[in-house]
Amino acid sequence: MSIAQYVGFALWFLLVFGLIFEVPLAITLMAKLGWVDAPFLRRYRKWAFLGAFIVAAILTPTPDPFNQCLMALPMYVFYEVGIVSAGVFNKKRSPEAKAAAPATTSGNGTATAVPAGVAGDTEYVGVPTGRR
User: Fold this and answer.
1) pTM higher than 0.70, yes or no?
2) Which of 15, 31, 11 lies closest to 79 in space, CA to CA?
3) Which of 53, 89, 124, 132 could be bridged to 72 by S-S, CB 3.0 to 4.6 A?
4) C-alpha closest to that of 41 among 68, 72, 81, 9
5) What was the pLDDT predicted at 101?
6) What is the Cα–Cα distance from 63 to 43, expressed in whole angstroms?
7) Do the beta carbons of residue 36 and residue 86 sit within 8 Å?
8) Are 101 and 114 in contact, with CB atoms under 8 Å apart?
9) Mean pLDDT in each 10-residue stretch from start to end of the chain (132 residues)?
């Protein structure tokens, strides 16, 4: 094995494992955008396991099953971490919080809910301009 082959092998492994470590971040982002949620991800858990081994078989530069497992198992573990993060970051507002949010009337007469902790127009404090 030459130096060029070794460096190519090492860089490929580093790149692929770096991408695998981004799986929970990608799942969390998709959950925040509303594309997926935790029950959806749990329902397709078996397919994710199979998909992790298929992707690992394609991405590993050697045909041995050890390297495939070395890549597929962390990929599946990160999928599970992504399910947990999707459950945490895709929380819907509770009915109590929706009921506690005051409603304001906009200029056209329709009521809009103001999120909890946001002050109304009467309590707005302007940004100081430095002039007196």
Assistant:
1) no
2) 31
3) 53
4) 81
5) 52
6) 31
7) yes
8) yes
9) 86 86 89 89 93 88 84 91 89 55 53 52 63 63
